[in-house]
Design goal:
Shape: globular
Strand content: 15-25%
CATH architecture of the largest domain: Alpha-Beta Barrel
Distance between the termini: 44 Å
CATH superfamily of the largest domain: Metal-dependent hydrolases
Helix content: 25-40%
Number of domains: 2
Number of helices: 15
Radius of gyration: 21 Å
CATH topology of the largest domain: TIM Barrel
Structural class: alpha/beta
Length: 427
């Protein structure tokens, strides 16, 4: 049912002349779309009026790299090396997860993201239909990408995983909030011939790529040894991987030539600052990349390595960690741009800003909180003071999915109980 919503007299984060600015606004929503800002549309009658005074209204945040099913592993394998974390603790438990476990893990992540202002996410998952079912239930916008692993084009498991993506597209393709990409997991889990097979399939079905790239020193060193001294970025570029539009997560260890390749090939780099440092992998050179014109966006990675899917936390961290030696590197506007406009560009979505013609993905934060006083600079407050708990109302695709801080489409207590039961069983 099409609904008209008016958000009246709110302080809003607006994109004006390609710059983020705060101003008072009346926001008119009809169905899925923002149809006007500060101009009353002809014949508009509101079915629901939201008094925006006392709120800071922003575009919904966009999380470009998540593994939603992994929320059940939160605070489980901390303070370990990357190899011990992944192969010693997480992978053995992943192997024991059921589809139902993955569903409730994804439900928990969707609940966390909505309640902290994220309206859209891109997921790299392992369980067909489970992320989609959770996003459908909670009302989230999502880009589904089934993680692909395989040795070559004849690898039965690798073929099955690609077919999982195609089957998900067929089942969920009519949902206007969903889109899809192919997700070759990484160069160390995909053989050369399998990657070339993925390129062929991406072009055949008109799909973009989502992958992990240059996350660890070991990944780069092993690639150089195996591929005539080439870095992972050079290796993928050499085979034509980036001829398919690509979103690359992490990109921590890059050479100057790598950066140039990513710029020239229009690769979107997904910055996961908390996960990268928690696993001891380092700090991605996003200040350089952004200045070069690379589209930098934000991701949380999973709760197993972050340990939240709260983009306010990652924005704050990103706005601080890059300032070592340069207090003007990566500021508040930068991280807000990464998490909104740039995220929408990376995922090919008509979201990321509050303006006429965009999808109505909107978040309202309660300003009557100590972290917002004194109100010297609310734009800076979004990056340096806000923590996500201020989120009161969330609208996705024109539907109110959070009101007065509570989910409207799903039972929060059931989600928490089911997620806890998963780990009680796995141990």
């Amino acid at each position: 049912m099409k609904m008209n919503i008016l958000i009246k007299n709110t302080k809003a984060l607006l994109n004006k002349d390609n710059d983020l600015k705060l101003d008072y606004a009346d926001i008119y929503i009809s169905g899925e779309d923002i149809i006007a800002v500060n101009e009353i549309p002809d014949g508009f009658t509101a079915d629901k009026v939201i008094d925006g005074s006392g709120y800071l209204t922003i575009p919904g945040l966009i999380n470009c790299h998540a593994h939603t099913y992994m929320s059940v592993f939160r605070n489980l394998a901390d303070d370990l090396s990357f190899e011990d974390w992944l192969f010693g603790s997480i992978s053995p438990r992943e192997d024991r997860l059921t589809d139902d476990d993955a569903y409730w893990g994804a439900m928990l992540t969707c609940a966390e993201m909505i309640k902290t202002g994220t309206t859209c996410f891109m997921d790299m998952h392992m369980f067909k239909n489970m992320t989609a079912a959770a996003a459908d239930k909670t009302g989230m916008r999502a880009v589904m990408t089934r993680g692909l692993v395989g040795s070559d084009r004849n690898d039965e498991g690798g073929i099955r995983r690609i077919n999982d993506t195609l089957e998900e597209m067929k089942r969920w393709g009519n949902n206007s909030r969903f889109s899809f990409m192919l997700a070759p997991h990484a160069i160390y889990t995909c053989g050369d011939d399998y990657l070339r097979f993925c390129i062929e399939k991406a072009k055949e079905h008109g799909l973009n790529f989502h992958t992990h790239l240059s996350e660890t020193v070991g990944e780069v060193e092993n690639c150089r040894k195996a591929h005539n001294g080439m870095t992972p970025t050079e290796y993928l570029n050499d085979m034509g991987f980036f001829d398919v539009r690509t979103c690359a997560a992490h990109c921590v260890h890059l050479t100057e030539n790598d950066k140039k390749i990513l710029k020239d090939k229009n690769v979107s780099v997904i910055h996961n600052p908390k996960s990268n440092l928690k696993l001891g992998n380092g700090i991605a050179p996003v200040y350089d990349l952004d200045n070069m014109g690379v589209n930098v966006c934000m991701g949380t990675d999973s709760q197993a390595s972050n340990n939240t899917n709260n983009l306010f936390s990652d924005m704050n961290f990103a706005a601080l960690v890059h300032k070592i030696g340069n207090a003007q590197a990566v500021g508040a506007k930068d991280v807000l741009r990464f998490a909104t406009i740039n995220g929408a560009k990376a995922l090919g979505l008509d979201t990321g800003s509050i303006e006429k013609g965009k999808k109505a993905d909107i978040v309202m934060l309660d300003l009557d909180r100590p972290e917002f006083y004194p109100r010297n600079n609310l734009l800076s407050a979004l990056a340096y003071s806000a923590n996500g708990t201020e989120v009161d109302t969330v609208i996705i695709n024109g539907q109110v999915v959070l009101e007065n801080g509570r989910l409207t489409l799903a039972d929060e207590e059931e989600i928490y109980a089911k997620a806890q039961a998963v780990m009680d069983r796995l141990g």
